Amino acid sequence: MSHIRSHIMVCTGTGCTSSDSPKLITAFEEELKLEGMDQEVRVVKTGCFGLCAMGPIVMVFPEGACYTRVTVDDVHEIVAEHIVKGRIVTRLLHMEGEAGQSVTSLSDTQFYKHQLRIALRNCGVINPESIDEYIGMDGYTALERILTLVRRQRENQVEIKEVEDGWKVTLTITDIGSDLLSLTIFMPTRKECEAIRRRFLNDPMLTYKGVFALLTGDTQTVGELVESQQDLFND
Ligand code: FES
Fold first, then answer.
1. 60 forms bridges with which residues in the sheet?
2. Helices and strands per DSSP (H, E), number in the chain
3. Using a 6 Å cutoff on CB, does residue 15 contact ligand 1?
4. Which of 9, 10, 16, 106 for a ligand 1 pocket mutation test, highest count of atoms within 8 Å of Cβ?
5. Most buried of 19, 79, 169, 201, CB within 10 angstroms?
């Protein structure tokens, strides 16, 4: 298995593409092959970094060096100096201020210093065409959370109904289409039903285990479950 030690991120946003960034990708790949490093350095296309006027932009990780206005003629030097010898090519770094000081990383530029990127936070950091890289940066976690919540709500249900002389609360746990537990309890007040709802939804499987242990006479498990839930019962 190959071990990737560096990533060369080449912007292929509209601005950089119009300044020939796709040619940089080919040039980097060829240069790396010549150096015998094509298995340990990955060249990645990225979306727009936001510094279009300074394009084509090339970032090299793990150092995070941000090279601006890179041309095909610069590719050999970046590979020979930065990739092979670990020396950042300072003449290609972004320059700022009256003295024209070089800024190594993108986050240190005046343009980015005061920005908090939210939707675009991964832009330039991952390959926009790789779903694995997006997932590696916690992509889709919001979707995962909401689907888990919806699934839980579907699988674990509480129904509270008023009856002639009080209330009935029905607890249901469903798994793979069939009911694991369906339990209806009579309660004198709605308040007690709400307390049961809260405790049940907090950990439906605890209820299942508890009922199972009680009905099978497993007193040790019943004791352990009650012990582990003291905080819950003290509320
Ligand atoms: S298109 Fe490359 S930085 Fe915007």
1. 8, 65
2. 11, 9
3. yes
4. 16
5. 79
Quote the ligand 1 centre to 27 CA distance (angstroms).
Answer: 19
Q: Can you tell me the distance from the alpha carbon of 132 to that of 48, in angstroms, rounded to the nearest whole number?
A: 20
Distance CA 96, CA 130 (A): 33
Pairing between strand 178-187 and 166-175? antiparallel
pLDDT tens track of the chain, all 235 residues? 568 889 999 999 999 999 999 999 999 999 999 999 999 999 999 888 888 889 999 999 998 889 999 999 999 999 999 999 999 999 999 887 766 677 777 777 777 778 888 888 888 778 888 888 888 888 888 888 888 888 877 888 999 999 999 999 999 998 776 888 899 999 999 999 999 999 898 888 888 888 889 999 998 888 888 887 766 555 5
Identify which of 11, 59, 69 to mutate to test ligand 1's pocket (most ligand atoms within 8 A of the CB).
11
Q: Give the β-pairing of 41-46 and 6-11.
A: parallel
Residue 46 and residue 12 in contact, taking contact as beta carbons nearer than 8 Å:
yes
The burial of 9, by beta-carbon neighbours within 10 Å (0-12 exposed, 13-18 middle, 19 or more buried), is given as buried
User: What count of other Cβ atoms lies within 10 Å of the Cβ of residue 21?
Assistant: 21
Q: What domains does the chain contain, in order, with CATH numbers?
A: 6-139 (3.40.30.10), 143-230 (3.30.160)
What type of residue sits at position 91? R
Question: pTM higher than 0.70 for the full model?
Answer: no
Partnered with residue 169 across adjacent β-strands are 160, 185
